[in-house]
């Protein structure tokens, strides 16, 4: 791999992936439209972390501007992370925006790659939200897709579009289903960022539901590694779960976080929002076997690193 396109390069995972590629000696073209789904200042900080690297070219625009000839010139790998995230905001009129950014923009990208004389390898970021609330043992990639939010529906449809192009044309596209990624630069609307911020300010920690819901959390550097491995080893149309070191209940996570801050938080329980999965639990055996993926950062260490980053931002 010598040149890559990263869509959503100023986002949480995208900025970490861009930095990793640059460290690995890859020339990177980055595109980000700075959607205002959360504070744009956070994305600008992410971009500042990447810095003025001589091998990085940044384009501040939406994918819908379709400057594919410029963006894809000489590119052999595409990492497609640009999307409109978030379960809670995907209801009502906002659903049209989710369709636009998660489905239609992806289809435009696939068409543009297909038109190349030699299509690049494409790694598409999906989500465990396609499964909905998971039952029984660990969830593997053959489990039924039963999204419980409009956001999850758009991610499932995005996967189906990718599969159509892989089957019909052999387009080298693979998809990664992330299980709740966390770490430095995590979006401010996500739970860990919000919990740490509330604890640091001495505010009540707002928990949606009873705190017994469980998650499989993935440290951001592990999610980045999964992208690199998929680009190297995946076959067209393959889908992989990308998870962390274990499944854990939310209240147990809060116990770890409060221990790091050496305080006892004031918990405020509120009604859980529609579309929130009660359980996610990744079976990552396929990614281990096919890609060599193995999460390296345990939850306790990942939370410590996220807290260090948030404290640094607060001082800055």
UniProtKB/TrEMBL annotation:
It comes from Brevibacillus choshinensis. Belongs to the NAD(P)-dependent epimerase/dehydratase family. It comes from the Bacteria. PROSITE patterns: ADH_SHORT. This is NAD-dependent epimerase/dehydratase family protein. Residues 4-243 form the NAD-dependent epimerase/dehydratase domain. SUPFAM superfamilies: NAD(P)-binding Rossmann-fold domains (SSF51735).
């Amino acid at each position: 791999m010598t040149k890559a396109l990263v869509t959503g390069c100023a986002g949480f995972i995208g900025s970490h992936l861009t930095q990793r590629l640059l460290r690995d000696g890859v020339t990177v073209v980055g595109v980000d439209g700075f959607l205002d789904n959360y504070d744009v200042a956070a994305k600008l900080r992410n971009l500042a972390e990447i810095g003025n690297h001589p091998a990085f070219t940044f384009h501040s625009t939406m994918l819908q501007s379709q400057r594919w000839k410029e963006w894809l010139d000489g590119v052999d790998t595409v990492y497609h992370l640009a999307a409109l995230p978030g379960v809670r905001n995907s209801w009502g009129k906002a659903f049209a925006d989710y369709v636009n950014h998660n489905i239609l923009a992806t289809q435009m990208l696939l068409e543009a790659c297909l038109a190349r004389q030699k299509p690049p390898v494409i790694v598409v970021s999906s989500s465990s939200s396609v499964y909905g609330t998971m039952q029984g043992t660990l969830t593997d990639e053959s489990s039924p897709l039963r999204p419980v939010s409009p956001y999850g529906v758009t991610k499932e449809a995005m996967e189906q579009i990718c599969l159509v192009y892989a089957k019909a044309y052999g387009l080298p596209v693979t998809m990664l289903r992330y299980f709740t990624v966390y770490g430095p630069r995590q979006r401010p609307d996500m739970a860990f960022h919000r919990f740490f911020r509330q604890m640091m300010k001495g505010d009540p920690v707002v928990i949606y539901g009873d705190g017994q819901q469980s998650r499989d959390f993935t440290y951001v550097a592990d999610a980045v590694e999964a992208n690199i491995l998929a680009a190297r080893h995946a076959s067209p149309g393959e889908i992989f779960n990308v998870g962390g070191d274990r499944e854990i209940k939310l209240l147990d996570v809060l116990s770890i976080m409060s221990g790091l801050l050496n305080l006892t938080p004031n918990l405020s329980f509120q009604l859980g929002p529609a579309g929130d999965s009660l359980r996610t639990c990744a079976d990552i055996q396929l990614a281990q076997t096919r890609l060599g993926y193995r999460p390296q950062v345990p939850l306790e260490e990942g939370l410590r690193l996220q807290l260090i980053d948030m404290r640094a931002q607060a001082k800055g």
